Amino acid sequence: MTTSQSLRDDAKDRMSKTVESLKRDLSTVRTGRASPNLLDSLKVEYYGTPTPLNQIASVAVPEPRMITIQPWDRQAIGPIEKAIQKSDLGLNPSSDGVLIRLVLPQLTEDRRKELVKVVHKKVEDGRIAVRNVRRDCIESLRRQLKNKEITEDEERRVQEDLQKLTDRFVGEVDHVGKEKETELLEV
After folding, report:
1. Is 22 exposed, middle or buried (0-12, 13-18, 19+ CB in 10 A)?
2. Nearest of 92, 51, 91 to residue 75 by alpha carbon
3. What pLDDT, in 10s, does the model give residues 128-137?
């Protein structure tokens, strides 16, 4: 495998990881529907250690607008409630001592518009990340050309391939953003 081929493969891999990261990031943006992914980024102060919620409790969605959290240790109910209240989710937990319920209220039109702006910002960050991968690869190519490891023709060809890859992944980022926006605006 040539160095230019490994550079292309590396770029493709890093760009696809960027798209996956964006998908995970957008899954935490609250829509009108309940999803266990909303709580993925939530850290709970558990015995003095910030712990991901999914490591101390099971999260379920019994109804379209309700999430239930069942901690494996009842001592964790208080810290979980506190973490939810401190988070930017805007949800109020209610507990019966065994199970925590989160009811997702209907989103107002203004809140939907705010969330669409958040989605646009995350999508733009995704585009920038994809372009940064391209920039890093092109800098590497130029170093290889300067060190006479590749020819000018090969550099030009790899740059064109990188541009095509970038265009493809920026398109994927836009598509993921449009899907999330549609999901948010759906009443």
Report:
1. buried
2. 51
3. 999 999 999 9
Rounded (to 5) percent helix, strand, coil in the chain: 65, 15, 20
Q: Could you tell me which CATH number the domain at 36-103 has?
A: 3.30.1360.40
Q: String of b and e for 135-166 (b: at least 16 CB within 10 Å)?
A: eebbebbeebbeeeebeeebbeebbebbeebb
- The SS3 assignment for 85 reads helix
What burial class does residue 15 get, using C-beta atoms within 10 Å of its C-beta: 0-12 exposed, 13-18 middle, 19+ buried? buried
Cβ burial of 64 (10 Å; 0-12, 13-18, 19+) is: exposed
Instruction: Please count the residues of the chain.
Output: 187
Structure tokens at 65: 């607008």
Closest by CA position to 107, among listed 46, 32, 3, 19:
32
State mean pLDDT over 38-58.
87
Quick one: pLDDT at residue 112? 83
pTM: 0.71
Which residue spans of the chain are classified as CATH 1.10.132.20?
Answer: 3-27+108-185
Fold exhibited by the domain 3-27+108-185: Topoisomerase I; Chain A, domain 4 (1.10.132)
